[in-house]
Structures are given as C-alpha cells and as structure tokens.
Design brief:
Length: 224
C-alpha cells in the first residue's frame, strides 16, 4: 500500500508557511474551532469570489484575516460594503476584533485551488471531463510561470457504473523533492451521479535556501 503525503504538509516550514499563525496552551481547541468557523463563514459567503486560501493571525483580542482571491472586486463590494458586512458578521459571531485584508491573486490560471474549483464546476455542468482537464493544463502551461502541472480526477466519470481515475499531466512535478515549491489542492464536484474528486498539483520551481556563513577558525586566526 502506498502512503500518500500531502505535498503542502510535507514542506511546511521549508517551502510553505502555516495558514494559521498563533500559539495557545490552554484554549487551543477553542481557537482551532474558531479558525475553522471563520474559514467556513468566509467560504460560504464568498462562493463566487475565487478564494484560494485564508490566512489567520492572532494577537491578544484581535484576529487578522488575509483573504487571497482572484476577484477582489466581489469580496470588497461597492465602496467596501461587502467586506464591512463580512467583518461585522465575524465580530458578532467570534466576539473579538476582526481585521480583514484582501490580497489579489495575479495569475489564477496557475493556482491549484482555483484550477480544481474551475474543473469541479465544469463537471457539475456536465462538460466532458477530458476536455476540462486538457484545457486547464494548457492554460496553466501557456502562462509560462510554472514548470509542471498534474491533474487527477476520480469517481463515476461521465456517469459510468464503475468509478475510475484519470490523470492529465504536463511538464514535471517532483513530489519527492522537498525544496520543490508545489501547490496542491483537493476539490469535490457534486454531480447528479455522485461526488467526483479533483486533485491538482502545480510545480512553481525550486526554492533554494539561503546559505548560512560557515565560521572557519583557521581563516579567522590568520586575519587576526
């Protein structure tokens, strides 16, 4: 049996950073469920806003929430009405000061979460799955900013009796290389004949760690 490791969790602290940045000893469970609730509310309220990820940072009685979206106009709304309504709703539910920050995703075609959601939406509309996958791969590689992409979908494809999985790939996706910056997402498409899983891996190139200066005692003694 192959044991599959989440590519983002595998690289935490090396290539990827944590999406929740805070420390708690006693009320850890409470704050964890608070984070999950905040993410659930934002995702539910902004279903069409192209949200890739939500980062949460805490300090005393204040919560900083950063929303990474491909459609900042929808999130902000007319004269900031949407974002203000969302902020007030979260403050009422959580009981703490909430500060919302909107970050725009410049190239949504190369974001794993947004690619997965786009394919899932097409599958729900009964678009041919091979066409949806090929189109997503071509659009991502055409941007020229990534080195590889892999898409895998599994389930009752095309309404077939038996479930199966199909993979589409272009370029290279080195999953075993820890310094490889790989964006990963899992999205579910809810169709009339069942749920279809969509997995997306996007390889953005290697992240080379900075070299720390090595202290050489012989050289140091010579310079003295």
């Amino acid at each position: 049996m192959g044991r599959k490791v989440n590519p983002i969790g595998f690289r935490l602290g090396i290539v990827h950073d944590w999406e929740s940045k805070w420390y708690a000893e006693r009320n850890y469970t409470e704050q964890l469920h608070e984070d999950l609730f905040i993410r659930r509310v934002i995702s539910g309220e902004l279903t069409r806003a192209g949200i890739s990820r939500i980062e949460i940072e805490r300090s005393a009685n204040r919560i900083e929430v950063t929303i990474h979206t491909s459609k900042p106009g929808i999130v902000i709304g007319k004269q900031g009405a949407n974002v203000e309504r969302l902020r007030q709703m979260l403050e009422q539910q959580v009981g703490k000061k909430v500060h919302l920050k909107i970050e725009e995703i410049k190239v949504p075609e190369t974001d794993a979460r947004l690619i997965g959601e786009s394919i899932a939406e097409q599958l729900s509309r009964r678009v041919a799955y091979r066409r949806a996958m090929k189109q997503a791969v071509m659009q991502a590689m055409r941007r020229g900013t990534i080195q590889g992409i892999k898409i895998k979908i599994g389930g009752r494809l095309g309404g077939a009796e038996m479930s199966r999985s199909v993979t589409e790939m272009s370029g290279r996706v080195p999953l075993h290389t820890i310094r490889a910056n790989i964006d990963f997402a899992v999205v579910h498409a809810r169709t009339t004949y069942g749920r279809i899983g969509v997995k997306v891996w996007v390889y953005h190139g290697d992240v080379i760690p900075e070299k720390t200066p090595v202290f050489e005692p012989e050289v140091a003694a010579a310079t003295d």
